[in-house]
Amino acid sequence: MKTNKVTLLSVFSAFLVMGFVDIVGIATNFVKEDFKLSETVAGFLPSMIFLWFFVFSLPTALLMNRIGRKNTVLLSIGLTGIAMLLPMLIYTKFVVFAAFALLGIGNTIIQASLNPLLSNIVPQEKLSSSISLGQFTKSIASFLGPILVSAMVAWTGNWKYVFLAYAVSSLLAFILLATASVERESSTSTALSFLDCLALLKDGHIFALFIGVVMLVGFDVGINVRIPAHLQQVCGMSLDKAGYGSSVYFLGKTLGAFAGAFALARLNPTWVGRISAVLMFLSIAALLMTTSATLVLVCVFTASLGVVAVFSLIFGRAFEHLPSKTNEASSLLVMGVSGGALIPPIMGFMTTQYGAVGGISVLLITLAYTLGIMLFKGAK
Q1: What pTM value is reported for the model?
Q2: For residue 43, what pLDDT is reported?
Q3: Which positions ≥6 away from 297 have C-beta within 8 Å?
Q4: How confident is the model at residue 148 (pLDDT cuts 50, 70, 90)?
Q5: How do residues 78-110 score in pLDDT, each as one tens digit?
Q6: What is the chain's Cα-based Rg?
């Protein structure tokens, strides 16, 4: 398979659009202030993102079978662009919630369809590393979001111009992908309903990988929620400084995605996954043995390095296992992203009952399962 560089660039521009969804984090704070929302009401903005992963992941598989992967990705980019434009045109509470609901739907569709589209243009042996590189591209957008908001406030005095920047970027990505030459896949899939997609869970390998996504995304969301509080409760940090814990995690995750793409391409992917999973588990386990803020941040950083590589390998193994049902497998695994809404409440309960040890123990359980996946399901 020979990959055209322009075509590859067009697909990676879609990964950039995928990262736009993370603007919901900082935007929630501004929306809360602008409309004087309560903590409960404001909390619905980010939580709605996970809802759409549960609702629209499987329909995306059916849509890909009908209109093709490229057209499905184009639809998701279009929805993202419209979602970003709405608050610029009409800034009301209702419109903002509608825009973020549309953003969540678009992001669900793009996450379910973009990895399969990538498999159309890169060789199978390079798929995991290409997915990791795509996740690195997504992380760049996520990382730059808060910086861009600050820049808009400094340049224009209005944070909402970040939406205009994202809308224009979505339009450019749409044009780039629409004009790229991507051969449509020949689908031999017979899945015609939700039940056909869910039936893939009867396959023990796919079921194990699905739970792996639930656990890994649960860890990803859970550690971002828990680490600032851990730094406060265990290390005695002030609230404003404790927030750096999430920044350290995100920085490590971005660097890990970049390094993982090269490691997966040049080294044995099975061992890359196993070493990454072991590093993650040991790093979080070490949190139970220190009260030093510096060591906690080091542990958080090292734990973050392997997240994207393991995530990419889970998808890669699913595609290798069911090459004729890539659309359905991808959508089913993306539905597992909704697990990000499951782990934090459990961590909250365990922390209430047993203190910081309880919350960290939940993270260790998710990573123990992830390690098991890499040891027993991660090999070709």
Answers
A1: 0.75
A2: 63
A3: 231, 244, 245, 248
A4: confident
A5: 999 999 999 999 999 899 989 988 998 999 999
A6: 20
Quote the percentage of the chain above a pLDDT of 70.
Answer: 91
Secondary structure, 3-state, the chain = CCCCHHHHHHHHHHHHHHHHHHHHHHHHHHHHHHHCCCHHHHHHHHHHHHHHHHHHHHHHHHHHHHHCHHHHHHHHHHHHHHHHHHHHHCCCHHHHHHHHHHHHHHHHHHHHHHHHHHHHHCCHHHHHHHHHHHHHHHHHHHHHHHHHHHHHHHHHCCCCHHHHHHHHHHHHHHHHHHCCCCCCCCCCCCCCCHHHHHHHHHCHHHHHHHHHHHHHHHHHHHHHHHHHHHHHHCCCCCHHHHCHHHHHHHHHHHHHHHHHHHHHHHCCHHHHHHHHHHHHHHHHHHHHHCCCHHHHHHHHHHHHCCHHHHHHHHHHHHHHHCHHHHHHHHHHHHHHHHHHHCHHHHHHHHHHHHCHHHHHHHHHHHHHHHHHHHHHCCCC
How far is residue 309's CA from residue 267's CA, in Å, rounded to a whole number? Answer: 12
Contact in structure between 174 and 78 (CB atoms under 8 Å) = yes
Write down all domains in the chain, each with its CATH number in brackets.
5-180 (1.20.1250.20), 197-376 (1.20.1250.20)
Q: Which carries the bigger pLDDT value, residue 222 or residue 84? A: 84
**Neighbouring residues of 371: CB distance < 8 A, sequence distance ≥ 6:** 274, 277, 278, 280, 281
Supply the pLDDT for residue 380.
47
pLDDT of 240 reads 59
